[in-house]
Amino acid sequence: MRTVHEYSHLGGAEILQVRHPEIMADILAAIATVTPAPSRKADDETVRGRFPYSLDDVKDQFLTEFRNRGFEQASDPLAIARERKQIAYLKQNVYVEVQLGAHSCMLYDLAKFQHFYHSGKADVAVEITPANGRSQRLSHGVSQGAPSVHDIEQMTRHFPIAPISVLLIDV
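^ thats the sequence. predicted structure below, dont judge the formating
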């Protein structure tokens, strides 16, 4: 896969470039290494006539690539018994999420990033999500990068109040 667009919220991309260039290189290398396999779910009406990519395959490849590059999982306990806020990948105060879920899941990721930033556990966050054209070819409804970036821009500096780099990916 490749990065087709980067959106920097509150200087997220610049923080990565200046303070964490090695980690940014790891993130871009992980994205470049993921090569999704076509999913042949011909019986699914939403994908009939095309060969979307398997979300499970993409998630598994990202997990392998980030773990191979030294990223770990991070979580924080919540007030509710045994529940935790969880971030998919962490390396030296850089939090990364790969969001292939619904648009609302990306907004929840932004809230988690803000939580970890304000608690002093994150310097910057990276959200990786499909570009609009790619989301049309995945096996079920996924987040689309451009509307998510638009939502962040419309909220200006009100939410999230944390530096974030949003990377839109494509094959």
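The longest strand covers residues 2-9.
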